[in-house]
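Private note to self, pasted from the team thread so I don't lose it. Backbone tokens:
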């Protein structure tokens, strides 16, 4: 159903309201985004399971102990120490330090530990304990049939206990009003808050034996009303018609009838006016309770569903010149039904901001729902050129009516940074060792020329202790360059994580002022895929001397290889390997030029040259190799006659290439250049290559020398 406001907006601005009215927040907003997911995805695809103990609302792990009532009670007790005049305390999770009932007499019973323990499962660098307590209060009301409390994010957790401030049931009306005033509430608001808080659950004899004497109820609890698992106005209607069960109104401890004193303090005017407006009044006053925070805290806007929200975006380097862009689009179907959607596509810009193309995202992955919202997730997986990459996109939705709606993220587009990228396919998470630790190895791809260090920070959660809160240890971990491709350098870092902490552990990558943050370990394989910049190890049999230049670092080293031996010094321009991931320059007098090379085990195009005695253009030549044989193809200048396994190969003429010749390990061949006579002989003696010094293991990158 559309609200009156929504119907008015729809009539005024037609279909375009979708992308304009419901786009107050610009994505991404990290703190907002995490709480929005937890709040809205309660079942189906993408379910975050935060609402699990509240569905159904009658769920009680221990008979007589309402989970929903406990969630709401803990939020109020946490906020109750607020002093708005001084700007201190409020909803800040200081309740986690206030569980010593000899000091904080009001914080007794299992609800406190149970609530804190549950919400701590969702604690992270983007979801504070205080935000989670606020979310728990929202969820308890909504799951039990109550109104949706306007919820904001951005609370900051306390680091120590606050000031005791929960009113005592024995306080007289003046003291009660004084306590509520300290919290920023008028006498009327104090009545409203109690009336809204005392509809779920009840009072337990184990905690308040004078209010509910032991043995007087079957479960040791006296409910506030006859519908203790439903958020409704029964607590007021029963009070007004004198059938109330509320022990704080009619309990045997007359001095503890605090609800009676409050409700009757204005002649029942406030509670009478609330009967017909219970939900709307409670929505407002409970929001005020949740928004009472220290003066130093700034909260976000009220959380509402994004019309369109990207999820799990990833850029993976699949080869030197190709990126795979994958992820999902979460589409809000409250206003535009799934059945009315014909197709989705991402219209994206390249890294310079120029229009670059469109990516289909019409595959429905599944449907997710919340208390008041519904979504369909649409997936995509597309290759884009590494050279031009991507910087942002908008989402175009084609409807079955024939119209198209564009979601442009408040005119900013949905940003995609490609400076530093976590590479899950090439990262790994080992099984737990004997000590219960799992070793994570993270690979990051970084654009060459990015200034500053490449950093990885592990966010390790320290579990909640007794009378304490969970915390996050930020552990900086050095990243080491392991290899390079044409458009990205690859860095690696490893760290250990207790197996019990893997689910909650996140890491952040940073370089050049750009970040790839809040990355998890779940889903990493024990065996990573091979890096797209080569790899391998081997032993040494023959040598060639080279001068190595890694863009800004100069060094000299000796290169040796067991796969081939050469009859002369090999001149190469821009070649590299896994163990020595530096671009290396070589010079000599050989008369053949090779423009680009690659191999199966090192599938990155590498530019290299041999100086020629003639200025005549020389054809590009390419090669591919396997563990047992090497094959190559010449470029535009020649044809390649094949003369058997150990045959010779020559290039001449200008016929387009159509043939490929292979020489297995142990074979040999010679080739001559069309520029001027020159011969190189190669002998295969093994399956791998190694080297020493800066250039190091040449692997397949040196295997491509068989081109010459």
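Design output:
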């Amino acid at each position: 159903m559309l609200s009156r406001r929504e119907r008015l907006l729809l009539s005024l601005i037609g279909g375009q309201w979708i992308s304009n009215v419901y786009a107050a927040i610009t994505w991404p907003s990290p703190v907002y985004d995490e709480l929005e997911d937890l709040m809205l995805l309660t079942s189906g695809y993408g379910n975050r399971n935060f609402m699990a103990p509240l569905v159904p609302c009658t769920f009680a792990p221990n008979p007589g102990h309402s989970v929903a009532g406990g969630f709401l009670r803990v939020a109020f007790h946490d906020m109750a120490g607020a002093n708005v005049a001084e700007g201190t305390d409020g909803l800040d999770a200081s309740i986690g330090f206030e569980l010593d009932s000899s000091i904080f007499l009001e914080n007794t019973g299992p609800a406190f530990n149970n609530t804190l323990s549950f919400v701590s499962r969702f604690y992270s660098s983007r979801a504070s304990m205080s935000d989670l307590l606020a979310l728990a209060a929202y969820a308890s009301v909504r799951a039990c049939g109550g109104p949706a409390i306007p919820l904001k994010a951005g609370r900051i957790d306390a680091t120590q206990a606050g000031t005791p401030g929960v009113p005592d049931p024995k306080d007289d009306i003046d003291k009660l009003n004084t306590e509520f005033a300290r919290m920023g509430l008028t006498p009327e608001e104090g009545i409203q808050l109690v009336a809204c808080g005392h509809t779920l659950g009840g009072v337990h004899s184990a905690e308040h034996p004078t209010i509910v004497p032991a043995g007087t109820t079957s479960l040791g609890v006296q409910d506030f009303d006859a519908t203790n698992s439903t958020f409704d106005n029964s607590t007021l209607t029963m009070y007004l018609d004198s059938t109330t069960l509320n022990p704080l109104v009619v309990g045997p401890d007359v001095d503890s009838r605090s609800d009676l004193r409050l409700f009757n303090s204005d002649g029942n005017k406030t509670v009478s006016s609330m009967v017909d407006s219970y939900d709307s009044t409670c929505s407002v006053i409970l929001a005020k309770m949740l928004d009472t925070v220290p003066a130093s805290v700034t909260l976000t806007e009220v959380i509402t569903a994004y019309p369109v929200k990207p999820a799990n975006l990833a850029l993976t380097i699949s080869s030197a010149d190709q990126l795979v862009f994958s992820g999902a689009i979460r589409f809000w179907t409250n206003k535009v039904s799934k059945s009315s959607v014909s197709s989705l596509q991402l219209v994206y810009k390249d890294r310079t901001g120029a229009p670059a193309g469109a990516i289909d995202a019409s595959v429905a992955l599944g449907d997710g729902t919340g208390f008041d919202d519904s979504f369909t997730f649409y997936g995509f997986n597309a290759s884009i050129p590494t050279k031009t990459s991507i910087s942002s996109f908008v989402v175009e939705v084609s409807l079955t009516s024939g119209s198209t709606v564009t979601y442009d993220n408040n005119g900013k587009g949905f940003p995609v940074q490609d400076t530093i990228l976590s590479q899950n396919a090439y990262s790994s998470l080992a099984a737990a060792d004997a000590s219960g630790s799992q070793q994570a190895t993270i690979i990051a791809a970084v654009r060459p020329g990015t200034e500053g260090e490449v950093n990885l920070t592990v966010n390790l959660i320290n579990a909640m202790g007794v009378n304490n809160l969970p915390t996050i240890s930020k552990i900086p971990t050095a990243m080491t360059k392991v290899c390079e491709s044409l458009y990205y350098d690859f860095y690696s870092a490893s760290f250990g994580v207790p197996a019990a902490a893997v689910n909650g552990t996140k890491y952040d990558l940073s370089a050049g002022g750009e970040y790839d943050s809040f990355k998890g370990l779940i889903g990493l394989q024990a065996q990573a895929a091979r890096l797209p910049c080569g790899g391998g190890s081997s032993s040494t049999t023959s040598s060639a001397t080279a001068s190595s230049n890694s863009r800004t670092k100069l060094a000299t080293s000796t290169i040796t290889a067991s796969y081939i031996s050469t009859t002369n010094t090999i001149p190469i321009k821009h070649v590299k390997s896994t163990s020595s991931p530096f671009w290396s320059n070589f010079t000599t007098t050989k008369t053949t030029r090779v423009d680009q090379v690659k191999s199966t085990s090192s599938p990155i195009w590498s530019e290299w040259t041999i100086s020629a005695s003639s200025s005549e253009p020389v054809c590009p030549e390419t090669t591919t190799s396997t563990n047992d044989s090497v094959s190559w193809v010449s470029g535009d200048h020649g044809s390649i006659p094949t003369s058997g396994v150990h045959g010779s190969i020559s290039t001449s003429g200008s016929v387009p290439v159509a043939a490929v010749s292979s020489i297995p390990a142990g074979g040999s061949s010679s080739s001559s250049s069309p520029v001027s006579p020159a011969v190189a002989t190669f002998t295969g003696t093994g399956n791998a290559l190694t080297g020493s010094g800066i250039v190091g293991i040449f692997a397949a990158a040196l295997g491509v020398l068989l081109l010459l």
